[in-house]
Specification:
With 145 residues, the protein is an alpha+beta fold. Helices cover 45% and strands 16% of the residues. A three-stranded mixed beta sheet has the order 4-3-5, with no helix packed on it. Strands 1-2 form a two-stranded antiparallel ribbon. Strand 1 (66-70) and strand 2 form a beta hairpin. Helix 2 (20-30) packs across helix 4. The chain is globular and about 55 Å long. The structure holds zinc ion (3 copies). Residues 91, 93-94, 96, 130-131, 133-134 line the site of one zinc ion (ZN). One zinc ion (ZN) binds at residues 91, 93-94, 96, 130-131, 133-134.
C-alpha cells in the first residue's frame, strides 16, 4: 500500500473525506524531502488556498500522520511519520533528523503534574548535535586545510 493510500485510509477511518484540494496537499506533502516547512507545501500547491493548506497540515498532525521538528535555527519543519509519540535528534550542520522513541520524560511530567496541579497535555523534546558524517567531514577539513 502506498503512503497516499495509507494516509487516505486513516483519514477515512476518522470520517474525513479526501477532497480534491486535500488530495493536492497530501500529494505535495509526500513529494517533499525528509522534512519541510508549510511554506514548502504552499509553494507546491499553488492552486490550493493558504487556509486549506494550514487546515490540512493541522489535520495530518492531529491524526498523527506528520510530526513537527524544531530546528536549532527556530524554524518549524514537518515530516511524514506514523510512529506516534517520539522525539528527534537533529544534526545542526546538515539538518539530518533521527527519530528516537525512548522517552524518559514521563516520570518528570508526572512529578510536575503533582507539584503544580496542572493537567499536563504534551511535552516537547529535541536533541541537537552533529552527526557522524559531519564530524568526519570537519576532521578531514582540519587535516587537509
Ligand atoms: Zn518525528
Ligand atoms: Zn550532519
Ligand atoms: Zn516524550
Amino acid at each position: 500500500m502506498s503512503d497516499i493510500d495509507l494516509i487516505a485510509e486513516r483519514l477515512a477511518l476518522r470520517g474525513h473525506r479526501i477532497t480534491p484540494s486535500r488530495r493536492r496537499v497530501l500529494d505535495a506533502v509526500l513529494a517533499q524531502p525528509a522534512h519541510f516547512t508549510v511554506d514548502d507545501v504552499l509553494r507546491s500547491t499553488r492552486n490550493v488556498g493558504r487556509a486549506t493548506v494550514f487546515r490540512s497540515m493541522k489535520l495530518l498532525l492531529d491524526l498523527n500522520l506528520v510530526c513537527r521538528i524544531l530546528l536549532d535555527d527556530g524554524t518549524l519543519h514537518y515530516r511524514v511519520s506514523t510512529r506516534g509519540h517520539h522525539h528527534h535528534l537533529v544534526c545542526t550542520d546538515c539538518g539530518r533528523v533521527e527519530d528516537f522513541t525512548k522517552c524518559d520524560v514521563e516520570p518528570l511530567v508526572r512529578e510536575l503534574a503533582k507539584a503544580t496541579d496542572y493537567e499536563i497535555q504534551a511535552h516537547w523534546l529535541e536533541v541537537y548535535g552533529r552527526c557522524q558524517t559531519c564530524r568526519l567531514l570537519k576532521k578531514e577539513a582540519i587535516t587537509v586545510g
